[in-house]
Amino acid sequence: MPSFDIVSEIDMHEVTNAVDQAKRELGNRWDFKNVQADIEQDDKGITISAEQDFQLEQLMEILRMAFAKRNVDSRAISEDGESKSGKLVKQHLVLKQGIETDMAKKIVKMIKDAKLKVQASIQGDKVRVNGKKRDDLQTAIAMLREADLDIPLQFNNFRD
Fold first, then answer.
1. What structural domains and CATH numbers belong to the chain?
2. Residue 60 in contact with residue 48, Cβ under 8 Å?
3. How much is the pTM?
4. 154-159 and 126-131: which strand pairing?
């Protein structure tokens, strides 16, 4: 029976490359000369810091552009919270991986509401879709690609 998995993963190597690229661009920008601004990556996410709020927004835009150049979906970034320490404003960004239970339930409901001849089941942080025909599975993939979900989805492990 044909099946595939719906996952939400990001390539951490490409994220590291995008952060490095954003740091290089930060060093080259004239509007950040003599300004204390930084982009740092750790195990939990990315921290950006600057002196002013508008500079923080500029840093966020630089980071999103670097992600786009590296084909990393910027929907995988979620803002965790802004904090002020001394004369710096810091923003912590969390990298989202895996499909949360609420989103998985929403995906399963979307597939069932589409009245396709497929079955969807939640398996940990991914959703497996089974069907008798390959065309039905491809229709389900097309429907999910067109849906406006706030997480990036990948379709892998397609088996015939």
1. 3-8+98-159 (3.30.70.860), 12-95 (3.30.70.990)
2. yes
3. 0.79
4. unpaired
> Which band of pLDDT confidence, cut at 50, 70 and 90, is reported for residue 25?
very high
- Coil, strand or helix: which one is 41? strand
Contact in structure between 6 and 129 (CB atoms under 8 Å) = yes
CB of 49 within 8 A of CB of 32? no
Look up residue 82 and give its amino acid.
E
Check pLDDT > 90 for residue 24: yes
Strand partners, 78: 94
On whether the CB atoms of residues 129 and 120 are closer than 8 A, the answer is yes
**Three-class SS of residue 47?**
strand
The three-state secondary structure class of 9 is: coil
Judge whether residue 33 has pLDDT over 80.
yes
Rounded distance between C-alpha atoms, residue 84 and residue 154, angstroms:
36
Considering only CA atoms, which of 149, 32, 30 is closest in space to residue 100? 149
- Angle in degrees, 0-180, between the axes of helices 134-146 and 101-113, rounded to the nearest 10: 120
Q: DSSP character for 74? A: G
* Local structure of residue 65 (DSSP, 8 states): H
Q: Are 158 and 7 in contact (CB under 8 A)?
A: no
